[in-house]
Amino acid sequence: MNSSRKIETALAGLSNFISKEIRSWRKSSFLQYSQIYIDNKTALFEKKRKFNLSEYETLLEPYLSNGYRAISHLAYTRLPSIANEDKIVLMRHDVDHDIVTALKLAEWERRNGICTTYCLLHTAWYYGEFRNGRYRHSQLLADSALALQEMGHEVSWHNNLIALALRSGADPVEVLTDEMAFFRGLGVDLCGSSAHGDILCRELGISNHQIFAECSSKENFNREITNTLDDGKAVSVRLGSVSMRDFGLTYEAYDIALDTYHYDVGGHMRTKKKPTRYRHPFGRPTRTTGSVVGFLTHPVWWDLSE
Length: 306
Ligand SMILES: [Zn+2]
Known about the structure:
Layout lengths: L2 H10 L7 H6 L9 H9 L7 E2 H12 L4 E3 L1 H6 L8 E8 L4 H13 L5 E5 L6 E4 L2 E4 L1 H12 L3 E6 L1 H8 L3 H15 L5 E4 L3 H6 L19 E5 L5 E5 L12 E2 L7 E4 L6 E4 L17 E7 L4 E2 L3
The chain binds zinc ion.
Zinc ion (ZN) binds next to loops.
């Protein structure tokens, strides 16, 4: 079955998505969601649509028609060198809760030769259930991750670890250990992380990426953040207490140096020139050669109905 047919099948009935690799997983204990459940979840997003596919094309066109190539974030971090004349587009999709639109977009991108990065949120409904410090994953998650990868895209971790730990008392190290083992066991080459903007983190004035030692500022390193649960129990996490390296995570999306950044946060498309935070060279001699244009979209704002 070719990739296009696979995704059509996936969208027509995600729980029936079949490929050779996935079939073996179907016998496992993954959570099964009915098509009605998936449709009902997705229907909740319809009123949020702000942009359509032709606007997406318009956004990319000035770059793709001028010699830029769209590659995944992971591919970018693995480039041995970047020359001054290199032109690169890095498209990141923070999937959040709208996995169905993400898959549709991924298929459109595949047809158009664009490789992008899909960040799967572990606290989203499609991921599975979290109980007693562990996830029971859904078939939909496994199917989606493999479909995205088979379409040539990168699957990355949309990190909400601080919020999860502060709401549940879970140990971020244990969660990350389990989750990286899950994706790698599935055959997904997951090496990147991007911080999810959870409301609890915003209220506390922190960001999820600060759980990582490699991303925590000196002032925040080892700072204890505490939250009181509904039952009165206090739970806390320490910023910088987890090393990305220990889990095979090689980059945080905000580490990448960009010359231009287009992003749709809050359903408003904005552009920033030369955002300067967290610029890492990823082993290369310089961090600012070439022209690197970053995009961030959240599929929930995009209407891909035909
Ligand atoms: Zn997010």
